[in-house]
Design brief:
alpha/beta, 2 domains, 7-stranded mixed beta sheet, 4-stranded antiparallel beta sheet, 17 strands, binds 4'-deoxy-4'-aminopyridoxal-5'-phosphate
Length: 412
Amino acid sequence: RPLLPVVGADLPLPVLGGGTRRHVHLDLAATAPALRAVADAVTAALPWSGSVHRGAGLPSQVATARYEEARREIGTFVGAREDDVVVVVRNTTDALNLLASAVAARGGEVVVVDVEHHANLLPWRTGAHRLVPAATTVQETIARIAAELALRPAALLAVTGASNVTGEVLPLERLTALAHAHGARIAVDAAQLAPHRRISLAASGVDYVAFSGHKLYAPFGAGALVGRRDWLDAAPPHLAGGGAVVEVRSDGTDWAAAPQRHEGGTPNLVGAVALAAACRTLAALPEGALEAHERALHARLLTGLEALPGVAVHRLFDDADDAIGVVAFTVDGLAPGLVSAVLAAEHAISVRDGRFCAHIALERVLRRPEGAVRASLGACSSLADVEALLAAVERLVTEGPAGEYVRCDDGT
Ligand code: PMP
């Protein structure tokens, strides 16, 4: 059974041949449905649509209090230290772009592994960075990172918490110790990790974490960058405008300290409230419950897919000892886009295909320039979802597609 209820879990979708089927959502790594608790929090916040940090009226006062409370809850969710800053941004991409401009402003290089999602690769490419090619094992990849950090000082090591392609999780505490031993800070792209594992900046020593609400069972439009204050106070304002300043004169501007410095414009009250509600709901689960739920489903998905003839599961590393419920696979003789189209049209199952905004991972490491299919699960998934996918892939392997399909997206 699902661990947490979400909005739209019973959505009936039309299927080829007529009729409808319950939607099986196994594309949570792209965007997860909203938790019911999140929808309730948004509904409760909407009547108090006052402008955050602007206005003496009661709606504005309530909105401001709720926004700042949401900020605190988001920080608590990732175990923020007392002096850490929580910047409410649009998403992980936004968070990492902000951090990239902070690093550029202070100077210094960023070390990054090449299999990252583009959100944790391209922002660094706008400045001084060194790209470490991932090896076929975690051990060797860490050795390469260590060698790169030892070569000459770097300001930051930027790594993913969990791969959006294969779900593999890197040993963050080891990487943190490594970065710190070489005088660098560490930033973790937790877009995929945060919905599945507890994160604690205080306990792990990680300096910065970035994540997105829409992958964490909240709707779109809000994410967070959480971490050390000094770089964020010194960074150029991420969004220059009202609210980001202390004083504006004819001859200059006194910028506010972080987080306001980076949150120019009217704050996203509903986004922050939704994200905080998702954080609160996940944090309230009994210790280990989410991980146990997802591990059981993940194990069944892996063994089920691996048992099907002509189906290959892909991994970046031979020795990763942990992974979240994200599985990349291909079916011999069938293009990934065809597989995902058949799953959607004939079975009402949502998965993703393509190169998952991680082109180097797909091409250089997995050697799949044509992409792969990705199934991803979470707190709202059930064994029935996994069995439905396995049965549908089995039918596709044995009988082939029932209809003809035309690609309608760009598969990137
Ligand atoms: N990093 C990873 C690992 C991701 O999976 C994603 C989203 N696919 C991102 C960053 C970017 O997240 P967003 O699109 O919400 O900015």
